[in-house]
């Protein structure tokens, strides 16, 4: 009787293991099929690198095919920044949807509970991954809460402002002395609202809410930030800021001093 019970348990264990392996194989095939369809649609993209943090996409790099023989170009996106999310939804909605649904096999439990970064490289029919260290550079940033409060309070004091759904992205240079440098609109329409936002942000130049990049020694260096501002239909202003891997898109009137980004 004991032998029979052991054989039954063994059979069920082997059968369950086979089902799990088949399911894993099936899931991998689904991933690769989705991946192939995505690259087939976006023939301009050579590969994708995405960092996962706390089990979710955190940072994205798109590498583009070079049809001219020049070096492959890469675009970077900070997925915690509302501005980059907005741009991606407009340009590559299917890619961002895939990345949030995609769960790499090597996404271990520790990646969901601490600061470990899992770098996943996606190419047509190929998925590879490895854990990496966080970047050592400290990006330029600002006190987002104080900037949002300043914008919201100033806006509430304005009269006869129309209810609109406006999305704006500004880029600014943060100086070594913790002041706001050159700033300009890089995404969105020029309007009375964009002029108002620009004026309010410029008024915070010496307010102490801006912080420059720092190098490996902790010394301040000039850096860039992108600033996302959205006014929704309830007249609520949403603000998001990032300084990670920005590309200079505005005029630098102090170009005698280098900018790091």
Structural class: alpha+beta
Strands of the largest sheet, in order across it? Answer: 3-2-1-4-5
The low-confidence runs, each spanning 5 or more residues with pLDDT under 50, are: 2-27
Count of DSSP strands: 13
Give the number of helices.
5
Q: Give the overall shape, derived from the CA principal axes.
A: globular
Task: Using the CA coordinates, give the radius of gyration.
Answer: 24 Å
Seen as an oligomer or otherwise, the chain set is single chain
What would you note in describing this structure?
It is a single chain. Helix content is 32%, strand content 30%. It has 261 residues and is of the alpha+beta class. The strands form 4 sheets. A 5-stranded antiparallel beta sheet has the order 3-2-1-4-5, covered by helices on one side. A 4-stranded antiparallel beta sheet has the order 8-7-12-13, with helices on one face. A hairpin with a 2-residue loop joins strand 1 and strand 2. Helix 2 (82-91) packs across helix 3. The longest helix has 40 residues, at 2-41. The radius of gyration is 24 Å and the shape is globular. The model is unreliable at 2-27 (pLDDT under 50).
Give short descriptive properties of this protein:
alpha+beta; disordered N terminus; four-stranded antiparallel β-sheet; 261 residues; 30% strand; five-stranded antiparallel β-sheet
